[in-house]
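Quiz preparation item.
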């Protein structure tokens, strides 16, 4: 992390850092009260610096918008590119809340989670600075909008990368973190098509006034999620039905969202489709469940639903196992869903099998195993 920061080219000296920290509103919050944040691996960016590297937050540098606010591409003087999330007025947190979010963010380090580089908190602004991930969201790429063609094995690898990231958040991060908003739009692809999970902290970045009693690290109200799904396109299809009933989010809500992402990887379809009259909805989960046919040895009943771009590549065994695993994630009751750790291991096995199934095909042997795998040739 240190070298990444040094290469940012802002030439931050210890003096600069101290000056910046003193001028930040946290100074008054933390001074002498023993709650100084552990910010060893992140740096403070002045608002002026961020303004400069985004050309005054120009439209041309705007790359997206989420519930926290708008996201800008920023060019550091060294040429390093960063992604800057600028809180909208309604997302501004109290100094203490922002501080605790920064503390959590600064402790998360995983190769499949977008790196958090620093923050800014001055002039009534709150900004988060991340490494910039160049190849867009999985959501867009699956729908041909990101310019990347993803074959079946790459999709399995993306599932594995994302599962690793979420398993880390659930089981290794300290304190454990519930993502709260798992969707293909929150999985970015880097230049080597590695998956990088983003936005995991957002569900905690809910303004104080929107929080309900009982909101904590482990159990957060789902009210904010519900209010968000009304205006975030595509998100409703990912919401765990059990959390909607109980009003609480848990790790199992992330598992549900992940199950939907798994189905997207197979089908490249929207998690929810709104009919022309806007009164009818089709959930991908229901579509897949309806189509499954145990008697179909080849496609498991999903021939017409599988993304046409990969339909000639999916291998029978890996397809069936992957779908069954996704359906386990989508069980109505959270207690029936697997843990992220289990998912990670299962997907790893499926990926290895998919590899060997493919190899079997290239053997051109005439046994029944390779006959079953007759669809496993990769189309370049
Ligand atoms: N580190 C990053 N590198 C490149 N692009 C990013 C990065 N972070 C965010 N983006 C872009 O900005 C968009 C908005 O991101 P953001 O995380 O704020 O919102 P979201 O994922 O759409 O929704 P939500 O905040 O509700 O999860 C993303 O879809 C992505 O295109």
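Solution:
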């Amino acid at each position: 992390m240190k070298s990444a920061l040094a290469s940012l080219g802002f030439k931050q000296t210890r003096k600069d850092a101290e000056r910046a920290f003193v001028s930040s509103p946290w100074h008054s919050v933390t001074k002498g009260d023993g709650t100084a944040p552990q910010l060893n691996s992140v740096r403070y960016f002045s608002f002026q610096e961020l303004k400069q590297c985004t050309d005054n937050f120009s439209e041309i540098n705007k790359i997206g918008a989420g519930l926290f606010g708008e996201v800008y591409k920023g060019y550091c003087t060294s040429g390093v590119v960063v992604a800057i999330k600028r809180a909208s007025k309604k997302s501004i947190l109290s100094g203490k809340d922002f501080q605790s979010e920064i503390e959590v963010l600064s402790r998360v380090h995983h190769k499949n989670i977008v790196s958090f580089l620093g923050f800014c908190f001055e002039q009534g602004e709150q900004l988060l600075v991340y490494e910039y991930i160049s190849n867009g969201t999985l959501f867009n790429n699956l729908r041909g909008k990101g310019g990347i063609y993803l074959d079946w094995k790459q999709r399995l690898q993306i599932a594995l990368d994302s599962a690793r990231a979420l398993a880390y958040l659930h089981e290794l991060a300290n304190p454990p973190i519930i993502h709260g908003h798992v969707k293909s739009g929150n999985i970015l692809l880097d230049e080597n098509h590695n998956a990088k999970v983003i936005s995991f902290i957002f569900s905690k970045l809910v303004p104080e006034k929107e929080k309900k009693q009982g909101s904590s690290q482990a159990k957060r109200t789902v009210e904010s999620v519900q209010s968000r799904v009304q205006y975030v396109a595509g998100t409703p299809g990912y919401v765990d039905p059990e959390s909607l009933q109980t009003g609480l989010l848990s790790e199992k809500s992330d598992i549900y969202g992940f199950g939907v992402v798994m189905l997207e990887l197979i089908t490249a379809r929207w998690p929810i489709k709104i009919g022309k009259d806007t009164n009818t909805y089709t959930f991908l989960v229901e579509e897949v469940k309806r189509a499954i046919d145990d008697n179909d040895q080849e496609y498991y009943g999903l021939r017409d639903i599988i993304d046409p771009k990969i339909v000639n590549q999916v291998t029978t065994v890996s397809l069936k196992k992957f779908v069954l695993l996704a359906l386990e994630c989508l069980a109505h009751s959270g207690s029936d869903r697997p843990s992220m750790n289990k998912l990670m291991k299962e997907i790893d096995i499926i990926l290895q099998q998919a590899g060997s199934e493919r190899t079997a095909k290239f053997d051109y042997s005439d046994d029944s195993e390779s006959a079953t795998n007759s669809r496993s040739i990769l189309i370049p």
